[in-house]
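Lecture notes, unit on protein representations.

Consider one protein chain, 353 amino acids long.
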Amino acid sequence: MNTNKPIITATLSKNKIDEKEVFSFLVSNGHLDITFTNYGCTIISIFAPDKNGNKKNVVSGFETPEAYLNPHPFFGSVVGRFANRIEFGKFELNGIQYQLPVNKEPNHLHGGINGFNKKVWAVKELISNEEAAGVVFTYTSADKEEGYPGTMEVVVTYLLNRNNELILKYEATCDQPTIVNLTNHSYFNLSGFSDADIYQHQLKVNAGYYTKKNENNVPSGEISTVENTPLDFRESKKVGVNINELINDNGYDHNFVLDNKTGAIALAATVYEPVSGRFLQVLTDQPGIQVYTANWWDDSITGSHGIPYSKHAAIALETQNFPDAPNRPNFPSAVLSPGETYATTTIYRFSVL
C-alpha cells in the first residue's frame, strides 16, 4: 500500500471557455500523478510508474484544457446524457417519441453534438484527507438539451486514494422521466505510447457474452456468446491476436455483458503491458463495458505525447449500460424517473507486475 497522503492542487486556465472559468487539477499520492479539468470533466493525463519506477502518461490527451476545443475522439471526457449509440437517435418514453441529434450516421452517439464532453462543469468541492483527494464536479443539463427530456442535475466525483485507485462516481437526478448512461472515455496505452499500438497489451474481460450488433452498429437485441469468436477474453490474451479479424469495425468496438449481475462493484477487466509491467484493473457496478481500440485514429491528431495518434494506439474501456438500451426492452433499463437517483461507480486500479 502507498502510505503517502494524496494531495491536490488547482491551476486557473489562462482563458475562459463559454465565459466560464476553467481549471486544471493535479492529484498525486506519490505514486500516481493525475490531471483533470472541469472542461468536459476530462482526465488529461495519468502518469503511472513502470516496474522500474519510471513514470509515463498512459492516456491520450492534450497539454491544456483549451486544446480540447479542437476536434478529438472524446479523449478522457465524460460523455452523456447517454453514452454510446441510440439507433437513429430515436426512443420512446411513456408513450412520447423523442428525436435526438444524429451525430454519427445513422445514430446518436455519446450525448450528441454538444454533449457533456463539451460543457464547462462547475467545481462544487475539493476533497483532501488522509485517504483520498479529488474534485466534485456538477452540471445542470437543461430540459430538451440535445433533445433529452427534463432538467438533469449531474454530479461527477474523481478521487485518487492511497491504494492507487482512481474512483469515478456518477450521480444524476431529473425532474421528468428521462434516460441516462454516463461513462468516462479515457484511452489507455500502458507503455506510455512508447509502443505505437496496443497489440502486445494483454486483455481480460469478465464476460461470457456480448451484445451482437446489426448493420447500423447498434445491438440487434441478441445476447451472444463470446465462445469461438475474437471477442473471447475470458482468459487473458494479447489484443492483437484477433483484432484484424473484425473487418467491419476495423478492430474492437463491442459491448461486453459482464458476468457480475449483483449490482455491486466487481472486477470487469484487466490490462497488462508486459514490458513496462503496468497493470490496470477496471472495476464497476455497471452491466456492460465497451472495448474500443481506437480503430479510426489516422495520425491526424498529435497530443501531449508529441507523436501522432495512430490506428490501434490505445484502448478504451467504457463502463456503461448497454448501447441502445432505451429501444431494447430486454436490456437493463436506462430510465431515470423523478425522485430516483442514478448512481454508479467505476474504479481504475493501477499497479505493476
